[in-house]
Amino acid sequence: MFYTSNTFVSYNHPLKEADVVFLGIPFAGTSVSKPAIYGPLMVRESMKLMEDFVDSVNLFEKLKVCDLGDLEIVPGSYELTADRIRQTIADIRNENKKSFLIFIGGEHLITLPIIEATKPRTIIHLDAHSDSRSEYLGNKFMHQTWAHHAGKIADIIQLGITTWNKEEKENLGKNNINFYAAEDFITKPPKMQHPVHLTIDIDVLQGVETGLPEGRMDMDTLMKILDKTDCNSMDIAEIGDDRLPSKTGFMAAHIIKKVLSKLL
Fold first, then answer.
1. CB 52 within 8 Å of CB 60
2. Residue 213 burial by Cβ neighbours in a 10 Å radius (0-12, 13-18, 19+)
3. Which of 216, 191, 211, 78 is CA-nearest to residue 141?
4. CA angle centred on 197, ends 144 and 7, rounded to 5°
5. pLDDT digits (tens, 9 = 90+) for 186-197
6. What distance in Å separates the CA atoms of residue 233 and residue 180, rounded to the nearest whole number?
7. What domains, with CATH codes, occur in the chain?
8. 79-101 confidence digits (pLDDT tens)
9. What pLDDT, on a 0 to 100 scale, did the predictor assign at position 6?
């Protein structure tokens, strides 16, 4: 018997039969959070150390998971990496049209090619920052700009934002980007057109260190938001640890397991 492992689940199912597909995208070419390249590793190792059960249900006995490993990024090139993200998602969908897709970053700019490939009608965006500038330092494609471009593809509901620059503040309510207070979303969630993509910058939570100002949301509030969100795909970005055990890795793993529990 081989005592080996290449993923966080005890059995890695073939892509064609998977209910859930994991893909790591360790790209951090425009973010100050360079440790974000270790995000996929931090999440997988954290998932290994956590119990498989949620509310007395063993998720990984009920759901067939295919962990595809990490995308081979092109260091320093967002454009080439984005091409690989879009093509890889197309290839996944050619093999399996209905699986729930989970992407682990990497910086938040990875969300833009994910959106371009999956084509959701609604994006739920949890973040301490709006990321909706039209450009930053003369560059249209930065981790601060992805939402500006994604708003041309889908309606964006932003939650947890604590800081805006002047342009972002002036554009609130425009370009298909709308901000909601967490309490309002929880008590009376807006109508969402499906498919829905959930994107989370881990710095939306209190007590994380990603190199940027952290957010003010607590995990209990985030869980209540997830209770009100039925999504068809998700990504988590800016996991800023570079050593284990990883605090942000455990937070991301906890979020992933909550979302997966809703699939049951």
1. yes
2. exposed
3. 78
4. 95
5. 999 999 999 999
6. 21
7. 15-263 (3.40.800.10)
8. 999 999 999 999 999 999 999 99
9. 83
Dihedral (Cα; 145, 198, 54, 95), 10-degree rounding: -110
Q: Helix, strand, or coil here: 119? A: coil
Q: pTM for the whole thing? A: 0.95
| pLDDT above 70 as % of the chain | 98
**Phi, psi dihedrals of residue 133, rounded to the nearest 5°:** -70, 150
Where are the alpha helices (H) located in the chain, listed in sequence order? 39-49, 59-62, 78-95, 111-118, 146-150, 166-170, 182-187, 219-227, 247-263
In the predicted structure, residue 127 carries a pLDDT above the cut 90: yes
Question: What one-character DSSP code corresponds to residue 207?
Answer: T
d(CA 230, CA 12): 25
Which of the four pLDDT bands, split at 50, 70 and 90, describes residue 182?
A: very high
The residue count of the chain comes to 264
Question: Could you tell me if 199 and 120 are in contact, meaning their C-beta atoms sit under 8 angstroms apart?
Answer: no
Q: CB-based burial of residue 264 (10 Å sphere; 0-12 exposed, 13-18 middle, 19+ buried)? A: exposed
